[in-house]
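Bumping my old thread because nobody answered last time. Still need a sequence for this structure:
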């Protein structure tokens, strides 16, 4: 007969022993229980898991890797993307022993001890030691140097994990002897599939609960691409739902709901378990456009507090930070403009910083840019200027280029009168020459009309003097 955990019972007690081991395993956190046992179960990172890839070779074992195969890898990526998981999968290969060290607590003596034991295991027992070193960026240079003999001589298969750029946090000799693999944040589909598997898998919740669509969406957003965070949140929400169902069942009589039916995890359970309100925000619907519209209009209206509110709403709803950064850049150019030319620099820098550091820290960068733009003096003069110029071009105005401004660098140009009478600006006083630049029908047309706000106050005065000199006024 098959038990609750899918184990066949037998008279010799082996099934009972296996059941006890499984029950003990069920006490482990859900994220630990759901850790993949093979590369085929790994969620995401498919760019690293193709046939014949280094990770496939490492997971296959020493025989498959061969003497020239990959020996050690450094896994670089955000938290929750599978660095520890990949190390455990690699350690499951034939003839492997898994040893884990934390850079926070381990010292040089611990590293040397592991190396000595690995050498003994290899030479005497033909067992390869997989050394998983978490947060290698916290290791000092001396501690990293202690790894070199074991890595170079292949006493161990080093799998080092880091959330920081190894080019700056790992010593060059160790980096050159290892294969650097970059892990990407998990997609929403990856996280959603992981949650669905955890709900049904006997190692997970074993169909004890059913996850509603709204609750799944809430958990996916809160995860932020972190598999561990998603599973931990699911476990907490399921515990709340199961506890609520147990209390309700005790109040019902025998004619109540059938016992053992799956319990549905609703949004209210995820909110209660995580103490985080589920933000109602459809990134494909009206809320997406309404919130970003209110966000931009709040910046334009110089209401920094409202702008930060809408930024927080988008961040908490899991909006793509790159989308937010792009809108901030547009606002800097359209609404702040030349009243504060540094606003565009801040916006572009914020977009680049978000790309480099990701979320959740990226929210700080976005907030700084929002505060700068919302509190800056405003001018749409440059925006209005280009629109007016485009309108004239579309209307057919501004035909041709004045002869003295045309290209005069090719044979025959002078015969056509190109460049004749052109005044080199740097030869004129203050490097401003009096001559015609626009086409004949646009002479005297002002497209850029600066305001008296911020830096444009000084620009307006300077522009008046420039136009007087250029136009001969």
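Sorry it took so long. Here it is:
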């Amino acid at each position: 007969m098959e038990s609750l955990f899918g184990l066949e019972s037998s008279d010799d007690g082996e099934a009972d022993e296996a059941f006890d081991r499984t029950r003990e395993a069920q006490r482990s956190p859900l994220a630990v229980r759901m850790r993949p046992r093979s590369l085929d179960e790994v969620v995401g990172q498919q760019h690293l898991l193709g046939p014949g890839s280094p990770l496939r070779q490492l997971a296959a074992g020493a025989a498959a890797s061969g003497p020239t195969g990959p020996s050690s890898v450094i896994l670089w990526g955000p938290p929750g993307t599978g660095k520890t998981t990949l190390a455990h999968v690699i350690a499951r290969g034939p003839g492997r022993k898994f040893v884990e060290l934390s850079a926070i607590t381990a010292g040089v003596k611990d590293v040397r001890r592991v190396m000595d034991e690995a050498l003994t295991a290899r030479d005497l027992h033909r067992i390869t030691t997989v050394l998983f070193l978490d947060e290698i960026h916290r290791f000092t240079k001396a501690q990293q140097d202690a790894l070199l003999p074991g890595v170079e001589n292949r006493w161990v298969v080093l799998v080092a994990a880091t959330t920081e750029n190894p080019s700056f946090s790992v010593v060059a000799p160790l980096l050159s002897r290892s294969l650097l693999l970059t892990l990407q944040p998990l997609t929403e589909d990856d996280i959603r599939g992981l949650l669905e598997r955890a709900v049904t898998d006997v190692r997970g919740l074993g169909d004890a609960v059913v996850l509603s669509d709204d609750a799944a969406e809430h958990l996916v957003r809160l995860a932020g691409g972190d598999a561990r965070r998603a599973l931990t949140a699911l476990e907490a929400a399921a515990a709340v739902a199961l506890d609520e169902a147990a209390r309700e069942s005790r109040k019902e009589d025998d004619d109540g709901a059938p016992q053992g039916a799956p319990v549905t995890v609703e949004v209210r359970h995820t909110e209660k378990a995580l103490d985080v309100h589920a933000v109602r925000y459809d990134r494909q619907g009206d809320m997406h456009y309404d919130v970003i519209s209110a966000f931009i209009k709040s910046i334009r209206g110089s209401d920094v507090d409202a702008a930060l509110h809408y930024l927080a709403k988008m961040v908490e709803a899991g909006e793509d930070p790159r989308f937010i950064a792009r809108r901030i850049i547009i606002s800097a150019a359209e609404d702040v403009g030349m009243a504060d030319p540094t606003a565009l620099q801040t916006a572009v820098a914020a977009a680049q910083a978000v790309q480099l550091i990701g979320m959740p820290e990226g929210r700080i960068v976005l907030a700084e840019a929002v505060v700068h733009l919302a509190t800056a003096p405003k001018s749409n003069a440059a925006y209005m200027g280009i629109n007016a110029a485009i309108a004239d071009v579309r209307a057919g105005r501004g035909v041709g280029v004045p002869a003295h401004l045309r290209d005069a660098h090719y044979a025959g140009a002078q015969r056509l009168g190109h460049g004749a009478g052109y005044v080199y600006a740097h030869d004129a006083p203050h490097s401003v020459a009096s001559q015609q630049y626009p086409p004949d029908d646009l002479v005297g047309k002002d497209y850029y009309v600066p305001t008296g706000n911020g830096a444009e106050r000084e620009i307006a005065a300077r522009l008046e003097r420039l136009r007087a000199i250029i136009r001969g006024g």
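Residues 17 and 23 are 10 Å apart (CA to CA). Let me know if any region looks off to you.
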